[in-house]
Amino acid sequence: MNTKELIAHIEDTGIITSGQLSTLVKRANDGDKDAKSVCFKECSVFVDDLLKAHELKKLGNEARKRDSLFGWREKNVLQEDNIELNLCYFRESTPVYWVFSDNGSFEYI
Predict the structure, then answer these.
(1) Which residues share a beta bridge with 90?
(2) What's the domain range around 103?
(3) If exposure means fewest CB atoms within 10 Å of the residue's CB, which of 24, 71, 77, 105 is most exposed?
(4) CB 53 within 8 Å of CB 11
(5) What is the pLDDT along the chain (109 residues), one digit of tens a residue?
(6) In whole angstroms, what is the distance from residue 77 CA to residue 30 CA?
(7) What is d(CA 109, CA 90) in angstroms, rounded to the nearest whole number?
(8) Buried b (16+ CB within 10 A) or exposed e, 52-75
(9) Do residues 96 and 109 make contact, with C-beta atoms less than 8 angstroms apart?
(10) Alpha carbon separation from 20 to 23, 39, 60, 79, 87 (Å, rounded)
(11) Alpha carbon distances (Å) from 69 to 25, 31, 63, 81, 108
């Protein structure tokens, strides 16, 4: 599946898996312009449960650090049980997420 077809499939389903994300990151690192410029701001693309668990673990570890980059607002968002991760776009080959909960939201790179 080429990059444009992969992006269209992700937009149609509204969910991205860790495998699809890895494929897009690899293609962006290899110089694929479509992968580097992918933007899901026009539609909601949420991460699947496996990828969500992985990313939330990383976020939780960062929030617990003594010299964390997160402020009180980000930590407050992460305290909620009902957290959603939305993949919005890539900065070069780095995925950028919006983290949503009932306590607010923030952008995560």
Answers:
(1) 95
(2) 3-108
(3) 71
(4) no
(5) 899 999 999 999 999 999 999 999 999 999 999 988 888 877 889 999 999 999 999 999 999 998 988 889 899 999 888 899 999 888 878 899 999 999 899 988 8
(6) 35
(7) 9
(8) beebeeebeeebeeeeeebeeebb
(9) yes
(10) 5, 15, 24, 28, 12
(11) 24, 30, 8, 21, 11
pTM above the 0.90 mark?
no
108 Cβ partners below 8 Å, 6+ apart? 55, 59, 85, 96, 97, 98, 99
CB distance 100 to 107 below 8 Å: no
In terms of residues, how long is the chain? 109
The three-state secondary structure class of 26 is helix
Find the helix packing angle between 18-29 and 3-13, rounded to 10°.
Answer: 150
For residue 10 the two structure tokens come to 């992700």
Report the number of distinct structural domains present in the chain: 1
